[in-house]
């Protein structure tokens, strides 16, 4: 039941107005087929739109089943149009990119129905109107009469009480028009059917009641009815919302209809994301290399094991005791003595700068050997006595500084060269001890002595210091010349044994050891000279420091150094190892130059900052892609105004329209994300091959901690984030267009061609 009471409709534009409906009072009952006719512009369609809730009266009231529509909120009108009204339009108003079964099912889906249920009912209705052979055709493949049959089926899908038909035969020939009217009359017999038509003959043939309008007024009614109505304030229940997956399905059909535009937009959006993935792949490789190197250093500490000197000091006993701890996968002995290379024995040429490094055994453990990412050229580890392997940084020092060679060229230049290394050094007095003895007048600072015993150096007191020849001879235990402290001064002491002495590694002595270079590596974990076991264990053992006690007994202090690699990389395990060794009366210190690398931490931080800067630049491409998508979606609103109006006419809410647009942007974002992942994987594979083949030397030289076969390393977890990020960017880009589309009033949207 519908009752209109003194309804007026005035359209205004600026200061001008048009009075479309004037004092309309009508009553409609279920079971009637009512035709409203009259000349063009008399207000027929306006009246139909007000009855259907597409437009609202300027004044007056309309009551639908005891509900006063004047008090309806927008959601109640949406519910009314979706559940109580079925529209049949003159121009069909089918959505061209949807198959006809989806066109019919859409209204039911807007009511919250599942795809399966909606398509089942749509199929049954299409069979009822004779279109069972055309279910999956697009509207453009149908004739006018068939399209109108689809529109009728769509109007009936929610089993509404009211069918509103606006010129349902206006776009059809007479024969097809009569078939459509017969169909409406046969399948809508138990409903209120209101038809707007300009054809009075059609109206008389198929209607139970005729209403004529002229200049916005009712001038005749063949069966005027008026009844009292009760007004109820019960709110209409809220209907279920359009499911998001159905919005995605709806959007997918639209995207299929504009596939090339969609692909190009998605590709444009993916370009920036590809750039971010490539930047992340590079910095991921750099950070991974740094972190792996730092992790090895942190989790495999150098341990300095200090022990007071005794006559029967046994290095093997110390090593065996470490083996008994069962904590280590490898124990490498590295003498505290440093080795010095002063001369290239192959051509008897002195080096411009002496190279001083500690020695270490070659590792045997496979997991440690794997840290050597690549030996340079045909390098190998020392296998025989008097063979040596160098780190690339050390090897570079053996080349003349005016040469700029690649790592391979350095190896070819040095391969097989013999070098003399020294492992025995002089001692020098401890400066504090020397100062102490000078104050006690045990030592004297003099001029340089010329060697003539008859001419003593200025400042030498023979009565206190003794004969100068005896004084010089007393130095032979330590060195064979006076202690010269400047170009003009020397030191003489009456008792050199009273001094404390430090090992001076700047002054090697003896004949040295001749070694052959058999390999160069680029592993930053091993900066030492790598030598054979025999060379390491037969090295001259010198204490670092000794001092004289009050009873002139010399106490030696030194440290035996082992490089130990833990089976368990856990930091707590490392602490327990050190604690256990200390409990056995060893003094253990960790070499923090390897155990904690603040430079590596700063470098890692710098990598993140650098990545942020590059990513910010590339982000401009993502913003550009997002703006392009925004523009396309705004264009889409203009193209699809009628579609938006139709969705609202079928009871779709503003939220439904937003969900449909969000579904479309989600699909575009997903396509862009998949594009970006596929393109990134392909580009990274190609670039890694190109970089390895063309820039290997540069990578080894400037990024030695990076795997040269994977300079760009994909983080596959981040690829998932790239897809999600692409979807989020697309959805954000579509927010403004979707909100604008949802604000379109149904009647305004339907009026747009």
Characteristic terms for this protein:
753 residues; alpha+beta; Rossmann fold; 26 strands
Q: How does this structure look, described?
A:
By secondary structure, the chain is an alpha+beta fold. The protein has four domains: 2-240, Rossmann fold; 251-295 and 600-751, no CATH class; 299-425 and 509-538 and 557-594, no CATH class; 431-499, no CATH class. 44% of the residues lie in helices and 22% in strands. The strands form five sheets. Strands 11, 12, 17, 21, 24, 25 and 26 form a seven-stranded antiparallel sheet that branches. A six-stranded mixed sheet has the order 6-7-8-3-9-10, sandwiched between helices. The chain has a six-stranded mixed beta barrel with strand order 13-14-23-15-22-16. Strand 9 (209-214) and strand 10 form a beta hairpin. Helix 4 (115-128) crosses helix 5 (144-156) and helix 9 crosses helix 22 (654-702). The longest helix has 49 residues, at 654-702. The protein is rod-shaped, with a radius of gyration of 48 Å. The two termini are 33 Å apart.
